[in-house]
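The instructor's notes for this session suggest beginning with a concrete chain rather than abstract definitions. Hand out the sequence below and ask the class to guess, before any prediction is shown, which regions might be ordered.
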Amino acid sequence: MKTKIQICRVTAIAVAILISCSSLKAQMSKSNNMKKILFVVTNVNVAPNNGAAIGLWLEEFAAPYYFLKDAGIDITLTSPKGGVSPVDLRSSSEKASSIYTKRFLEDTVAQKALYHTLPIKEVNGSDYDAIYYPGGRGPMWDLPENPQSISLIESMYAAGKPIAFVCHGPVALKNAKTSTGTLIMKGRKLAGYTNEEEQAGNTGGGVPYLLEDMLKQSGADYQKGPKFEPFVLKDKTIISGQNPHSSLKVAEELLNSLNAKK
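After discussion, reveal the predicted structure:
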C-alpha cells in the first residue's frame, strides 16, 4: 500500500513538472513573439548656441511609451552616449501635462529606464521590429550627425521595418540614405514641427536651424496641419507627426504597422 502511495506521489510530481515545463515553454514562445521597438532619445540638455535648457519633450516620449507598453510591446531605450536622456523642464510643467506625462512622473521604473539608456553603438537594428524617434530640441543637436543613429535608420529602412518620428524627431533623417545613396526623406511625405509652431512656442532660439526649412531643402514632401493640432503622415514604412499633440496618433500608426506585418 505504501509503495502504491509513493508511486502515485512520484507520478503526480512528474505530471506537475510536465505541466510546469509546458507552461514555461508557452510563455517563452509568447515572449519570443513579442514585438520589439527601439526608442532613440537625446543626451543634450543645454543648447550649444545660446545655453537654453532643452532635452527630450516628455509627451512625445511618454504617450507612445505607455500606449505601446500597454499593447504588449517590448521597448528598449537608446541614446548616442547612453545613460541619461534629459527631459526638457518645460515639458514636465502642468501646462504641458497629460495623463501620460503624469503617469511617467509617478513611475520610477520608467524614469530609471530613461536615465539609464543604452549607447546606440551597443544595439543592433536586426533585433527590433521598429524604431521610434521622439522629439524635443535636444535631438536637433546630437542625432543628425550621429553615425550609429544614421546606420540604424538606414538598416531599418532597408529591411522594410517601420520608422517613426514626431515633432523635432525627423531631424534624425537629415543624413540617412538609401542603398543607392539618395536621402531617405527625398520625395517622402513628412510632417514635423513647423516654423510657425517654433515661433509661437518661443523654441526657435534653442535649435541650430528650423526643422521645416531643413526638411524642405532636403527634398522631403513636407506637409503640415493646423498649428498645435494632431497631424500624422504615413508614407510606406515612414510615420511622422507634426507636434507633441501628434504623439499618440504616431504610436497608433506604429502599432497598426506592426500588426499588419504579422
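Then share the key points. The chain has two domains: 1-33, 34-260. Residues 4-8, 10-32 have pLDDT under 50 and may be disordered.
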